[in-house]
């Protein structure tokens, strides 16, 4: 909850409600500070849903050996990226991350050793890595 509130300061609490009936569903409800009605997660903004989903993934007590995320920054405020990078570094002891992004804002939060630059060749095949780690370090250093 603390991580979510750090990026969503209006968020006060997240509740899980169990409506009566045979469906056995769980409804996630977001409670905001102030005189706001509770919001079901299904009605929240795309960025809020995406952020909470990524945080849930990063707090999985039994993560998979490999976690792949396409365009992690999509729909997120740049402020959320710093938090996600920090949590991924913490969780990298338990899972390996493969993150695909086109976002300079995300890449700028990584160290050169954490980056692998890939590109597509003229025939459509992938070139991995497209440049050496030393070249990545030069680019990051602004040389």
UniProtKB/TrEMBL annotation:
GO molecular function: ATP binding; ATP hydrolysis activity
Domain of life: Bacteria
Positions of the ATPase AAA-type core domain: 23-106
PANTHER family assigned: ATPASE AAA-TYPE CORE DOMAIN-CONTAINING PROTEIN, ATPASE-LIKE PROTEIN
Descriptive protein name: ATPase AAA-type core domain-containing protein
Organism listed in the record: Acrocarpospora macrocephala
């Amino acid at each position: 909850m603390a991580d979510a509130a750090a990026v969503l300061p209006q968020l006060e609490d997240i509740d899980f409600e169990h409506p009566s009936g045979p469906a056995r569903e769980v409804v996630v409800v977001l409670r905001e500070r102030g005189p706001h009605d509770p919001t079901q997660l299904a009605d929240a903004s795309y960025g809020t849903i995406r952020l909470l989903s990524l945080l849930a993934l990063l707090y999985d007590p039994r993560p998979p050996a490999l976690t792949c995320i396409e365009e992690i920054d999509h729909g997120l405020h740049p402020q959320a990226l710093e938090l996600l990078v920090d949590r991924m570094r913490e969780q990298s002891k338990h899972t390996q991350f493969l993150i695909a992004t086109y976002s300079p804002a995300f890449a700028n939060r990584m160290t050169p050793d954490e980056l692998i630059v890939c590109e597509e060749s003229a025939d459509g095949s992938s070139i991995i890595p497209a440049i050496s780690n030393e070249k990545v370090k030069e680019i990051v250093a602004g040389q």
